[in-house]
Specification:
The complex is a heterodimer of chains A (110) and B (236).
Chain A (H helix, E strand, L loop, with lengths): L1 H9 L3 H23 L4 H23 L7 H8 L2 H28 L2
Helix pairs in contact in A: 2-3
Chain B lengths: L13 H9 L11 H30 L7 H4 L2 E3 L2 E3 L2 H25 L3 H31 L13 H32 L2 H4 L13 H26 L1
Antiparallel strand pairs in B: 1-2
Helix pairs in contact in B: 2-6, 2-8, 4-5, 4-8, 5-6, 6-8
Chain lengths: 110, 236
C-alpha cells in the first residue's frame, strides 16, 4: 500500500504539463507583442512585468515542482527573494542620485 | 514530487509540516532527495549572481544621461528587406521554452520508468539548447560585426555592450553546460543506468531517475533566467 502511495506522489498527469507548456507559449507570445505594437511608458513596463512574473511563477510552480514540494523547502527558497527586492529598491535610489549628480554637474559645472 | 516516506515518521502538510520539519532535530527537508535539496541551494546562489548582474545593469542604464540603444532596433532582423523587431530573440525564447517542456516530460517519463521515451526527450532538450546557443553565437557575431564592444557601440550609451556580453554570455555558458550534461544523462538513460542502479563516474551513489529531475531543475532554471533577461534586457 505504501508503494502505491509513493507512485502517486512522484508523477503527475501529462495534461498539466501540456497546459503549462501551452500557457508559457501564449505568455511569451504576449510579451513579444508588447514590443511588436510598441506600447510605451507605464503600460509597457507593467505588461512586461506581469507576463514575466506569470511565466516565472508557472515554471517554478509546475515545471520545477515547487507546488508539490515540502513547505520547509519552498520557504527556504522564496524568502531570500525579499533580499533581492530590497537590493533593487536600494539601487533604484542610488541610480536616481547618480543621474541627478551627473546632470547637475554637466549643466552647472564642477 | 518528493518521496514522502520515512520509517516511523508521519509527514504533515503546510505550515504544521514546516515547523515539524525544522524543529525535529533531524534532516530538515524531509523526504527530499539530498541531491535535489543541494541543487536548489545552488540555484538559489545562482539566482543571486544573476540578480546582481541584472541590478548592476539597471543601475548602469538608469544612471547614464546618454540615450540607451533601442533594443527593438538593435536586435532587429532583416527578412526580405523588412526589419522585424526582436525576431531572433523571440525565436530563441520559443526554442528555450520548447526545450523546457520536453525536459519536464522527460522527468515525468523517467519516474514512470519509460526509459526510451525519457532518453529521446532528453536528447530533444539537448538539441533545443544547442539550437539556442547556436543562435546566440549568430547574434553575438552580428553585433560584433556591427561594432558593438564592451567599451562602446555606434547606437548609444557605451555601457550597453559590456552589460550585453556579460549577461547573455553568462547565461549562454549555463546553457552550454546544460547541453553537455543533458547529453551525458541521455546516454546514461539509454544505457539503462537508472534502471539497474549503476553507479556514476564521480560518485558511488547508485543511479536513480531522481537524477533526471535534479538535472531538470537546472535546465528549468536556465529557462527561468532567460525569462528575466528577455523582459529586462530586450523588452524594457
Amino acid at each position: 500500500m505504501e508503494e502505491t502511495k509513493k507512485e502517486q506522489t512522484t508523477t503527475h498527469k501529462i495534461g498539466i504539463y501540456l497546459w503549462i507548456w501551452g500557457l508559457l507559449f501564449v505568455l511569451s507570445f504576449c510579451s513579444y507583442m508588447v514590443d511588436w505594437f510598441q506600447f510605451q511608458g507605464l503600460f509597457r513596463w507593467s505588461l512586461i512585468l506581469t507576463f514575466m512574473f506569470l511565466k516565472a511563477g508557472l515554471i517554478m510552480a509546475f515545471f520545477m515542482h515547487l507546488f508539490w514540494e515540502r513547505y520547509a523547502l519552498v520557504n527556504v527558497l522564496l524568502w531570500p527573494m525579499t533580499a533581492i527586492a530590497c537590493f533593487v529598491f536600494l539601487m533604484v535610489a542610488e541610480f536616481k542620485y547618480t543621474l541627478f549628480t551627473r546632470l547637475f554637474y554637466f549643466v552647472v559645472g564642477g | 514530487m518528493s518521496d514522502p516516506k520515512i520509517e516511523g515518521y508521519e509527514f504533515k502538510p503546510g505550515f504544521k509540516g514546516l515547523t515539524q520539519d525544522v524543529g525535529s532535530d533531524q534532516t530538515m527537508f524531509k523526504g527530499v532527495h539530498w541531491g535535489k535539496a543541494m541543487m536548489w541551494i545552488f540555484l538559489l546562489s545562482d539566482t543571486f549572481i544573476f540578480s546582481c548582474f541584472l541590478i548592476s545593469y539597471m543601475k548602469g542604464r538608469g544612471s547614464t544621461p546618454v540615450e540607451w540603444p533601442n533594443p527593438s532596433e538593435v536586435f532587429a532582423l532583416h527578412v526580405g528587406g523588412v526589419a522585424v523587431p526582436l525576431l531572433l530573440i523571440a525565436i530563441m525564447t520559443f526554442v528555450l521554452i520548447t526545450s523546457s517542456g520536453t525536459m519536464a516530460l522527460a522527468v515525468k517519463y523517467g519516474y514512470e520508468k519509460n526509459r526510451k521515451l525519457c532518453g529521446w526527450l532528453l536528447l530533444a532538450t539537448a538539441l533545443g539548447g544547442l539550437t539556442f546557443v547556436g543562435m546566440q553565437a549568430f547574434e553575438w557575431s552580428k553585433l560584433i560585426h556591427e561594432g558593438v564592444r564592451p567599451w562602446g557601440n555606434p547606437f548609444g550609451a557605451p555601457q550597453f555592450g559590456s552589460f550585453f556580453f556579460m549577461i547573455t554570455g553568462f547565461h549562454g555558458t549555463h546553457v552550454s553546460i546544460g547541453v553537455i550534461f543533458l547529453s551525458i544523462y541521455a546516454y546514461k538513460t539509454f544505457a539503462g543506468h537508472y534502471d539497474t542502479g549503476k553507479r556514476g563516474w564521480f560518485t558511488t551513489i547508485k543511479g536513480d531517475y531522481v537524477e533526471i529531475e535534479i538535472l531538470g531543475l537546472y535546465w528549468h532554471f536556465v529557462d527561468l533566467v532567460w525569462v528575466f533577461i528577455f523582459a529586462f534586457f530586450y523588452l524594457w
